[in-house]
Amino acid sequence: MGKTTIAGTLARALSRSGHDVLALDCDANPMLGISLGLGAERTEELVSAREGLESGDTPHQPTAAGMEETFGTDAPDGVRLVVAARVEQVEPGCMCCGVSPHQLLRDMEGESRMVVGDLEAGTGTLMRMPQGGANLALVITQPTAKAMQVARHALEAAKQRAIPAVLIANRVRTDADVELIRTTMGPQVGIPMAILAVPEDAAVAQADQDGLAPADVAPESPAVLAVQRLGQSVSEFAGAR
Asked: Do the Cβ atoms of 231 and 10 come closer than 8 Å?
């Protein structure tokens, strides 16, 4: 289960628990629609609409509401998906093509919806976040040296910007994998961390391979159930703020 699959499964879990959820696909390769259960064809239609900005086939949208209408669609379980990946245009003041995820989130401040963003891999987006630019950062890592190094930088960036963070130990096979991440990451980052483990799961891997949402085809699989527990924790966190 990768970050996009976790984001899609989490968005649906939150919506099922009663939240009004907006899912933002901010990845350069926007495939969140597949993980939400829209299917490859509808996901590609949304991506094509974004690409139409470059050719002039799609009109620019100066507001977040306009973006949601033009580049958004209803997904299963009542989630609203918006493809908000940046495009290769030099129009930094344009909401739909030059605005970064944290600017878009700022424009949505005051809304009652819960926003789940699938950001680009790495630390770039977090590094550009202002102080308190998000309510919570979910940092996903695997028990490998390279993945933990990237996650360490992400946690440090969140800490510097006063953004609470949860570390997700992803695709773990044993308790030793989780402990490796805990002992390796904790002392070096220097912040107390809640760690949630998402196990390696053949059913989720098959769903990803087939272009289907694990929430639809493997709702009782260990990885999906783990993300549902994450959704409960996120709900409790949101309610405490």
From this structure: yes
28-79, pLDDT tens digit by residue? Answer: 888 999 999 999 899 988 888 877 877 777 887 777 788 888 888 999 999 9
d(CA 82, CA 103): 15
Question: Stretch 222-232: mean pLDDT, rounded?
Answer: 95
Q: For residue 42, with 0-12 CB atoms within 10 Å meaning exposed, 13-18 middle and 19 or more buried, which class applies?
A: middle
186 versus 14: which is more confidently predicted? 14
- Predicted TM-score (pTM) of this structure: 0.89
Residue 237 predicted with pLDDT over 60: yes
pLDDT at position 8: 96
- Token pair, residue 68, equals 């949601």
What is the residue-wise DSSP string for the chain? --HHHHHHHHHHHHHHTT--EEEEE-SSS--HHHHHT--HHHHHHHHHHHHHHHHTSS----SHHHHHHHSEEE-GGGPEEEE----S---TT-TTTT--HHHHHHHTTT-SSEEEEEPPSSSHHHHT--TT-SS-EEEEE-SSHHHHHHHHHHHHHHHHTT--EEEEEEEE-SHHHHHHHHHHHHHHHTS--EEEEEE--HHHHHHHHHT--HHHH-TTSHHHHHHHHHHHHHHHHHHH-
Band of pLDDT at residue 85, cut at 50, 70 and 90: confident
For residue 66, count CB atoms less than 10 angstroms from its CB and return exposed for 0-12, middle for 13-18, buried for 19 or more: middle
